[in-house]
Structures are given as C-alpha cells and as structure tokens.
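Predict the 3D structure for this chain.
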Amino acid sequence: MFTFSLTLVRHGETQYNREKLLQGQGVDTVLSETGLQQGEAAGRYLRDIPFNNVFVSNLQRALQTAEIIQRNNTHCSGTEMVLEPLLRERGFGIAEGRPKEDLKNMAKAAGQSCRDFTPPGGETLDQVRLRFKKFLKVLFKRMLDEHGWSSPDASTGAGDSVNGPAAAASDAPLGGSADDGLQGVSVHVLAVSHGAYINVAVKHLIEDLKCSLPAGVKTSHLFAPCPNTGIGRFILTLSQSESGPVLSAARCIFTNRKDHLENLTAAE
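Done. Predicted structure below.
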C-alpha cells in the first residue's frame, strides 16, 4: 500500500475570466493583476506544505500560478515542475474566445443543457474525463517509480485513515487549516489546472471512484464551479496489481477552498 495527497489548484484570474469569455485550450492568456495577487495568496496559504511533486497544465495561466505557488513554498523551491498537457483545460471548439453567454445560447438552440453541450470542435465531458484518467495513470506510475512501495505511509496507518470515517469537521471546505488531511502522509503532490477540468476530475473521483466525502458537506458544494485559485485535496491509496498500481481507496478532504482570498479586495 502507498498513500499520498493530491492538492488540486485552479489557476488565477485572467482578463478573459473577468470578462466572462471562454478560453479553453486555444486562447492562451496570462494572469491579470488580480490573478497574480490570487496566486500569491494561494502560495502563502500553501507555503508550508512539502510538495514532493508538482504537475501543471502547459497553458500560461496555469504555469504562472504554479510558479508563484512554488516560489512561495518553503520546501519545494527546487522541486521539478512537470508540464503536463493532460491537465489542460477542456477544449471548447468554436466557442473559445467568445462570451460564455454564447455557449449557453448554442446549447439552448441544440436543446441541451449548457453543461452537457459540446460546441463544434470541442471536447465532450467524457473525453475530458478520459484525459484525467490518463493523468491518474501517469501520476500513479510516477509515484511508485520515485517513492516506491516502501513509503513510511504504508506502515504508519495512513491507509487505515483513508479507509476510515469521513473527514472530521476540521476538514470542512469552508474554513480550516492548509494541512488538513495530511497527518500521517509523507508524500504530497500539487497539480495546477483549470476550472472545467477540475470539475470533471472531482466528479470522477467522487462518483466513479467512490471517494469518501468530508462530513457534513453537501455534494452541491463539492461539485460547484471552482473559483480562481480554488484549492481541493484528496488522499489516495494505491495497491499493487498485475497491470500496475491501482487505486484502492480515496478520501476527499475538501474542494473549492478559498480562505486565502478573503483579504483580497477583488478576489473573484
């Protein structure tokens, strides 16, 4: 058994976010001034988490955010940052660069909900989910190649905690400590990605992989849109199989946490 934490962070605000324009993959924008401030705030919040591995979408807004977080961190300034195309935002095809309202109108004209609608040239939600599943496979292999099955977590009861009761009130997403869920776990992964992608990832972990949930938190909160530099965390336990490492247990600690943004004058 091997247990590690996965902390998911959405990139900071861009001007396109502020103007409610779709970016997807084809519009590769940088952070706005507010987005830079959000990145700094997220970096300060996560500064004491000793990330062993850092994965980031290769789009500029995510890369900038990850660089800011890493620069603020007291432990991982020298950690290799892996640019991972599998973490890129959902492709929105012909809707990229256009107002989100246009996407809603396209969906309405097609008789579909906006969430389920795929604009011409865009990715379906199933295709995004497949990308995340591929990322997990890459991640699991990397964890074992670098850290092996001999991680202290395998013998300190971390696996038991993952399979145990749902997270306590202190692990609630609305307020809490930056190190919630990390007790007894010694390997930590940071992944910086995008809003629509993270939403699909969270739903896959919870609905498909049957991740246990934090106590007293409504599913509607866990599945709500992730704010800019919103933070989520999962504790994952791997076991061996003939085909390689497989997920044997998963626990959601929180999603969409934005405590770090409270003191910013224009956080959203």
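The longest helix spans residues 125-147.
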